[in-house]
Design brief:
Blueprint (H helix, E strand, L loop, with lengths): L10 H14 L5 H12 L5 H12 L6 H23 L4 E2 L2 E2 L1 H5 L1 H22 L2 H23 L8 H27 L3 H28 L2 H4 L5 H4 L5 H9 L2 H13 L5 H10 L2 H19 L7 H15 L3
Antiparallel strand pairs: 1-2
Cofactor: Mg(2+)
Keywords: Magnesium, Metal-binding, Transferase
GO molecular function: all-trans-octaprenyl-diphosphate synthase activity; metal ion binding
């Protein structure tokens, strides 16, 4: 994955972050290291630490502290993945069995707690109260977003505003915290700091919107997770919400019933409905609008390879297949 062009600008930094991540997984309890290493070694795109590195570099920073911040962000993200998979009873992530599928729910939750706690130990090492404030706020908002989403499972009355609240909190918040804290660490001026904060928010929203499109159009082997996972869990994502609002009476009823009962009995019919009524196009257009805004926000930064990479990353949010 790191062969994508926007990694090139911070290739050496990225390798340092990966090593730091592995070093910080150390624990006196073997099972902690075993599960931690399993989920970290699954790789993924490491987009949030990448945002830290690119944003700090775009602000002119060349300092090992950015590696520590990037590792903190990845630990926070990984802890949420462990917890999410338990909440969602998921059995596949990044093309591999989830930790809870292999070791059970209790060890997964507890190792998630370990990674979350270790991230705050690392924040103390970083020694920047402003960054700790940003990240503490972010983790609170993310937890609230998770709970809000949980309360809307199998709730076919969920509207677009509530959905956007969920994804801003649950997904976009950590992207926002990544770019915002990187700007603060780099000592960027107020305009650049605010622009990068908003960039992370727009990028995160775009990524989640495309994830929700891919849930109906993607390929399980490519995505590394099961197609229709959200529908199976009864989650009312935007393609479904739009179909209930704008589709035919039959399409709306089909989706409503599918959300209320969960499962994948009608996945083929749902895929046809969300495509035919324009729900996927609508969701994709919203993502494009967020990406355009993300790219525009970078205009206040000086020209650099890192700024170009941030723009490429935003556009990748639309073009990706997983």
């Amino acid at each position: 994955m790191t062969t994508l062009p926007f990694y090139t600008a911070v290739k050496d930094d990225f390798e340092s972050v990966n090593q730091l991540i592995m070093d910080q997984l150390h624990s006196r309890i073997p099972l902690v290291e075993k599960i931690g290493n399993y989920i970290i070694s699954a790789g993924g795109k490491r987009l949030r630490p990448l945002v830290v590195l690119l944003a700090s570099r775009a602000c002119g920073m060349h300092d090992p502290r950015q590696h520590l911040l990037a590792a903190i962000i990845e630990f926070l993200h990984t802890s949420t993945l462990l917890h999410d998979d338990v909440v969602d009873t998921s059995d596949l992530r990044r093309g591999r069995s989830t930790a809870n599928a292999l070791w059970g729910n209790a060890p997964s939750v507890l190792v998630g707690d370990f990674l979350y706690s270790r991230s705050f130990q690392m924040m103390v090492d970083l020694g920047d109260m402003d960054i700790m404030r940003i990240l503490a706020h972010a983790t609170t908002v993310i937890a609230e977003g998770e709970v809000l989403q949980l309360t809307k499972v199998r709730d076919a009355s969920t509207d677009e505003a509530t959905y956007m609240n969920v994804i801003r909190s649950k997904t976009a918040m950590l992207f926002e915290a990544s770019s915002h804290s990187a700007a603060v660490l780099a000592g960027a001026d107020a305009e650049q700091t605010e622009a990068l904060r908003q960039y992370g928010n727009a990028l995160g929203i775009a990524f989640q919107l495309i994830d929700d499109v891919l849930d109906y159009t993607g390929d399980a082997a490519t995505m590394g997770k099961n197609v229709g996972d959200d529908l199976a869990e009864g989650k009312p994502t935007l393609p479904l919400i739009y179909t209930m609002r704008e589709g035919t009476a039959e399409q709306a009823q089909l989706v409503r019933q599918a959300i209320q009962k969960g499962g994948l009995d009608d996945i083929g019919l749902i895929q046809h409905a969300v495509r035919e009524c324009g729900a996927l196009d609508y969701t994709l257009q919203l993502a494009r609008t967020e990406v355009d805004e993300a790219v525009r926000l970078l205009d206040c930064l000086p020209a650099s390879e890192a700024r170009d990479a941030l723009q490429q990353l935003a556009r990748f949010a639309i073009d990706r297949t997983h």
